[in-house]
Amino acid sequence: MHQPGRLASKIMPFEELSQVLAARQAAGQKIVFTNGCFDILHAGHADLLEEAAREGDCLVVAVNSDASVRGLKGPSRPVNPQEQRACVLAALAVVDYVVLFDEPDPGRLIEAFLPDVLVKGGDWALDAIIGSDAVRNSGGRVITIPLKYGASTTDIIRKAREGA
Questions:
Q1: Are 58 and 25 in contact (CB under 8 A)?
Q2: Res 1 pLDDT > 80
Q3: Deepest in the core among 50, 62, 123, 139, taking most CB within 10 A?
Q4: Could you give the CA distance from residue 54 to residue 58 in angstroms, rounded to a whole number?
Q5: When comparing pLDDT for 145 and 2, which is higher?
Q6: What mean pLDDT comes out for the span 20-27?
Q7: What is the residue extent of each domain of the chain?
Q8: Of the candidates 20, 16, 47, 52, which has an alpha carbon nearest to the alpha carbon of residue 141?
Q9: Four-way CATH pick for 6-162: 3.40.50.620, 3.40.50.1010, 3.20.20.80, 2.60.120.10
Q10: How far apart are CA 44 and CA 147, in angstroms?
């Protein structure tokens, strides 16, 4: 049975989430962190999130705000507004918390949360992952998940525009 507000309770502002994660880590739980635009959720995203969740007790997904996505991807993006992207991610059982961020990268969040495991897709080189030094220096691990399905939001948008 659907509980009103359940999805919204998974979407937290930075300050509140910082406190929640600190308490969970103090209780011995392993925090896993990943981030992205998640503009059009596809099977590649679902696989990455499922694999990431297996790495610990609590999966945090940081989502680029609309302004951040426009800065990274151009004026025609995002396709879906930040509130909707956050809501869709919060609806996934493997995701424990969603946090939005305005910066071009999640470095500030990673340095504040210091997750036990930092996860990115296999298209990222380990040494290029933002926040990897902070996580390693605090005793955490940085991993990449091999990409499956060959899906990308950019390709999905291109195919839709071409009518293919």
A1: no
A2: no
A3: 62
A4: 9
A5: 145
A6: 98
A7: 6-162
A8: 52
A9: 3.40.50.620
A10: 7
